Prior knowledge:
Elements: H1 6-21, E1 30-34, E2 43-46, E3 55-60, E4 70-73, E5 78-80, E6 83-87, E7 96-101, E8 112-114, E9 119-122, E10 127-131, E11 140-146, E12 173-181, E13 184-192, E14 202-208, H2 215-221, H3 225-231, E15 234-237, E16 242-244, E17 247-249, H4 265-280, E18 282-292, H5 294-305, E19 312-316, E20 324-325, E21 328-332, E22 345-350, H6 370-380, E23 385-391, E24 396-402, E25 410-415, H7 440-448
Parallel strand pairs: 14-15, 14-18, 18-19, 19-22, 22-25
Antiparallel strand pairs: 1-4, 2-3, 3-7, 3-11, 4-5, 5-6, 6-7, 7-11, 8-9, 9-10, 10-11, 12-13, 13-15, 16-17, 20-21, 23-24, 24-25
Amino acid sequence: MKVRSRAGTVAVLVAAAVALTAGVSLPASAAVAGPIAGLAGKCLDVAAGGTANGTKVQLYDCNGTAAQQWNVADDGTIRALGKCLDVSGGINANGTKVQLWDCLGNGHQQWRYDTTTKGLMNPETGRCLDAAGQSSANGTQIQVWACNSQTNQDWVLPGGGTPGGCTRSVGAGEHQIPVTLAGRQYQVTVYVPAGTSPATRLPMVLDLHGTQMTGSQQLQYSVIKPAADAGKFLVVAPTGDIPAASGFAWNVPGVGTVPAGARDDVAFLDQVITTATAVLCADPSRVYGTGYSGGGRMMSAFACQRADRVAAIAPVAGLRAGRPDPQDTSRPDPQSCAPVRPMPVIAFHGEQDATNPYQGGGTELWRYSVPVAQRRWAQINGCTTGPTVTAVSAHVGKTVYSTCTAGADVVLYAVSNGGHTWPDTSVDNGNGTVTHEISADTLMWEFFQRFRLPTA
């Protein structure tokens, strides 16, 4: 009969819950993070917190240190201290030691969890993670051994998670989830599509509001929920933190004057992605971003700085490619947008937009034109074909830069009679003509589905 330490199990689950609510940053690929409990309620531990390749992995009293914080990742790896749980040499023999090693993406570092036996199996060797000699003494070597369902092969993962697995903590519909940054908690509006399993990882779209709006208002204005239901993707609509009339504005890096102590919104959106990925069971390789007006500018800036977190972007009435160059505001400052990878872009803009003028000008937050912004993204992405211009409908034209690095095309839909509006919205915001000749939501989702973030 298996005996599990109830206290040890509870401690693991509480620690995982605390890590989540405290806003601990997890890597983009992490499903859950925290201690892994084994025999006698003791924890899987990296000896002395070492990070050298070959460092011993052992059983030890649970102590909450970084040496016992494991990320159970979507790619089947289990990671601590930036390295992977590894079967030494991939040797298929009982007693082969398990160690810490650089993550190499090979079979030595793959793990599968059996929810019935609670065993962690390495598929390459067909053997299970095992506390040597059924010992629970501190320092007991962790090894692989023929899977036998004994208590020394019984593991409790953080939050009850499994490699590549998750459970969505909210049902279908609109909800608020807490996100913590720098000790302060914010409520973030989210939407979960109907008809999905809570254990299925879904794509996720960040939907950023315009100035003087909120996240919940943006969810209504962008009319994105029907597209989310049809495409089975999550929507996350956070709110800026700078008061603006009856709503809020974003702290877009490098432009305008912001209040002292304003929230770092690049860091905030990064934390939103981390928290929402865990709470909503999102696929971290399929995170996308859109935004209207100031939200489009914010998403553009986020893509410049955190291209490792979003696979593609779709600014509406707000495409930027960095701040205006102080020496010549008719062009972007190339130093202010240097993403770590090519960024696929699809954008929408009305040519009669009086707030963020299509041909440039406007306030200090804007200045250079939308075609200039598109061309700059094409340069960043290494596109060699274009611009190719086609007519889509009576008032809509499409400009494409293609043959880009990693297929990261840059697409712009320009609406000749369109105002400062979201294509196909049913909400009249008083900012000019709304086109119904195209749907921004439909087109951006078709575009997004072509791209995923590269996995580590």
